[in-house]
Structure formats: C-alpha cells, structure tokens
Amino acid sequence: MGLQPTSIPAPSSGHSNRQVSHKGSFDGNRVHRSAILEEFRNNKHRRWELTDMAGHIVEFAGDQLGSRHIQSKLDTATTEEKEIVFNEIYPNVLQLSMDVFANYVVQKFFEQGNQAQKTQLAESLRGHVLQLSLQMYGCRVIQKALEFVLVDQQHAIIKELEGEVIQCAKDQNANHVLQRSLERIDPKMNRFISQAFVGQAFALATHPYGCRVLQRVFEHMPEDQTRGLLEELHRFSNNLMTDQYGNYVAQWIITDGKKEDAAAMMAKVKGQVLLMSKHKFASNVVEKAILKSTEEEMHQMIEEILAPRADGTSTVGVMLKDAFANFPLQKFLQASKEPQRALLFEEVASQLNHMKKYSLSYGKYLVASK
C-alpha cells in the first residue's frame, strides 16, 4: 500500500517543512493505494515518466515498485523532472527516510540532486540525526548524506551524535554511521568519537558492532587519538584474543597495526601457542601471527610446538587431534623453513602413526600440506 504524507513535529530549522510521521511501510499501518498507483502497478504497457506521478511522488516512493521506478528515472531525469520529485519529497524527508522503500529515493536524491537540493535535504535532517542513525532505514540516508553534502554540512550532521557515541557504536544501525564518518570526514571533526572511546576500548573491541567502529578509528584517526586505546587493549591481550569479537581486533592489530603493536600482540601468542591454537576464536589470531611473523618469531613458535608438553606428550600430537589447533598447525607446515620444516613434518608423521585407530578427519589434511 502506498505511503502518504502525515504529520510529526518538524525540525526548527527556519524553513517551512510540513510535519511528517515516523511510520513507514514496515509498520503495517499503510493506507489504500490511489487509483494512479494501482494503474502503475497493473498497467505494464504504459511508459511511466516522473511527470505522470506528479502529486503522488510520496505515495509512489513508499511503494516497492514505485520506489524502484523513481530511482531508475532519476538517473536520467531532466532538471525540471528532478525539481518535481524534490518539491514533493522535501517536505516529507523524515517520513521517507525511515520508510523501507522510500529511503532509497532520498538516498538517490543525495546522489543525483543539485547542490542546492542536497543542502536543503541535509538541512531538513538537522535535529533528527540521532533518531535517524538509530533507525534501520534512516541510518542509510545519513550515511549517504555524509558522502554527498558539503564539508560544513558533514560536520553539522555528525556533531549531532556527540555525547551519544557509545550508544551509537553499540547499535546495529548507528555503528554504520560512525564508520562512514570515520571513512569520509576530516579526522579533526571525528575526534569526539575517538575521545569517547577512552576507557571503553576493550568493551567496544568485544562488542559485535563496537569492534567494527574501533577498527575504523585505528585505520583513520591519527596516532595521538589511537595510542591510548591500543595501550588499553594490550593490557587485555589474552581476553581480546579469546573473545568472539575481540579476536578480530587482535587480528587487525597483527596484520594492519603499527609494527610495535603487532609485535606486542605477537609476544602474547608466543609462550601459549598450544593454548591459543586450541581455542575457537584465538586460533584465528594464531593463524594471523604465523602469516605475519618475522623469521625469528616463526622460529620461536615452531620451537615451542616441537617441544614436548610437561606430561611428556607431543604438542604436535595434541594439535593434530584438535578441531581448532589443526588449522594453525597447517599454517606452520606451510610457512616453516628448513631445518625446522623437516623436523615438523617428521613429528607429524610420527604422531599420525600413533593415530591409526583415531579418525583422521583433521590430521589427513596435514599430510597433504607436505
């Protein structure tokens, strides 16, 4: 059913926005389709132009087929046609931004509209950025706006999230807005994001959404904004590596972090290679450590797994039989160099001989690594 203009309080931005509702097509509260929308959906032979929809753009935008058609037409629309669409969506931009289908029309206008239109659309979002960022469809519109508006409006938009950074970082929708800001906006304007993370680095690193935002901070913010956060994580390295989400941050530090941070994380792997390899999440970190290690670091880790355990049993034998540790062992076999390589394969062969009665569902893959 089509989306119709309705009313909620509009932002106090000085322009005469009509008031609109937050209800969207996903809330099951739609009105009946107009005759023209019904004709559009049923008459497949008529060539529909944007001018044919004039007066019904909002309704068409809230319809799945209508939204797609508007988006397609905007790609090649004339200035006059774009003006027709803009004049109807602009007073209803909040309602449309939070609608399952109509949000795509707003996004498309941030791509295809002229600069004045983009500026007006962005201005109409002012005062509602947090609300939109936390909403499933609104967050996409905010991300698109950050890509296509002028710098001063980028800053105005993202600054509305100041004081709400942790909430946004942990939100399934708003985290994407923070990520886009970190990727697109001058780091100076994003300082409030990294500053809000101080003392929260580990909590964010072990959060399903926060871990993504934290990695973007490390990628795009300057050293003075990331050093304290990294130091906080180094204090909790073991917990980070064994966490369902934190292990991804630990992997990032090893593969993409600064040399000294990668070395510090690598040092925490050494001395507990078997323990970490047997862990569902930490084993991924061990694999990255193997791939990024220096020759000396690799030598030390292989020495560690070639050494027998305290009870005299083989470390390699344990890794062969373990559902997770056998994967780091494969990486060791592939990356090792002589003379350690020969010693490692010799130990694997010896342990396989002792596993005649054991299912070789993991160990058999290691033989193929030679």
Automatic annotation (TrEMBL):
Residues 1-19 have a biased composition (Polar residues). Keywords: Cytoplasm, Repeat, RNA-binding. Residues 32-370 form the PUM-HD domain. It is found in: Cytoplasm. Pumilio repeats lie at residues 52-87, 88-123, 124-159, 160-195, 196-231, 232-267, 268-303. One of its GO terms (cellular component) is cytoplasm. Its main location: cytoplasm. Pfam families: PUF (PF00806). Belongs to the PUF3 family. SUPFAM superfamilies: ARM repeat. Signal peptide: none annotated. This is Pumilio homology domain family member 3.
